[in-house]
TrEMBL record:
Biased composition (Basic and acidic residues): 172-185
GO molecular function annotations of the record: ferric iron binding; oxidoreductase activity, acting on metal ions
Protein name, entry field: DNA starvation/stationary phase protection protein
Domain Ferritin/DPS: 26-165
SUPFAM superfamilies reported for this sequence: Ferritin-like
Family: Belongs to the Dps family.
PROSITE patterns: DPS_1
Region: Disordered, residue numbers: 169-204
InterPro entries: DPS_DNA-bd (IPR002177), DPS_DNA-bd_CS (IPR023188), Ferritin-like (IPR012347), Ferritin-like_SF (IPR009078), Ferritin_DPS_dom (IPR008331)
Signal peptide segment: none
């Protein structure tokens, strides 16, 4: 979400304040996306049930910790560029372009179906951000690419549970979390297992 911000009084060498503010604003959106991802992964960690519970429950915590580290690194880069970091829950909800994760208590594989879409959004957003800052700030570009190494691996961990023997994803045609969860879990989701809204595949 584009915002007009006050120019910083200083930024890193070779960038002028306007360039520094522009890079910082790109990174601010990634702080929101990563904070949201960490909370979503923890929410799933607490709400998975079924035969695959322990595998998924234990797989997600290392992802949460890594993503929290990415948040801190990105926020500190914003500060290095001379801009303030907006790290409150209110700022995240106000400025994000996606809805809350829409699955409550549910089957572990159903949750992974929904998380496939979540990761699609986060990875796509990170790639776009890396491209947007590449020319102006190769340091921020390098940081985002470093995150992508892990984010794309985590996405693979999710998708490996959804892939069939022919290499197709059971969720590949789905565009909402609820539909992806239903397709992956091969069962109807009850009202108690969902919340209103579905995340956009453009971002998460």
């Amino acid at each position: 979400m584009a915002r007009r911000t006050r120019l910083p009084r200083f930024t890193v060498p070779t960038l002028d304040p306007k360039e520094g503010a522009q890079v910082a604003e790109v990174l601010q959106e990634r702080v929101h996306a990563l904070n949201d991802l960490a909370l979503t992964l923890k929410h799933v960690h607490w709400n998975v049930v079924g035969p695959h519970f322990i595998a998924v429950h234990e797989m997600l915590d290392p992802q949460v910790e890594a993503v929290r580290g990415f948040v801190d690194e990105t926020a500190e880069r914003i500060a290095t560029l001379g801009s303030p970091v907006r790290g409150t829950p209110g700022a995240l909800v106000k400025e994000r372009s996606w809805d809350d994760y829409s699955i409550g208590r549910g089957d572990a594989i159903a949750h992974l179906g929904a998380l496939d879409l979540v990761y699609q959004g986060v990875v796509s957003g990170h790639r776009e951000a890396a491209e947007a800052v590449e020319e102006a700030d190769p340091v921020s570009n390098d940081m985002l690419i470093g995150h992508l190494h892990s984010l794309e691996q985590f996405h693979w961990f999710i998708r490996a549970h959804l892939e069939n023997a022919s290499g197709s994803l059971v969720t590949e045609q789905e565009r909402t979390e609820r539909d992806a969860a239903r397709e992956a879990g091969a069962e109807e989701l009850t009202d108690e297992e969902t919340k209103v809204g579905a995340v956009s595949t453009d971002e998460s």
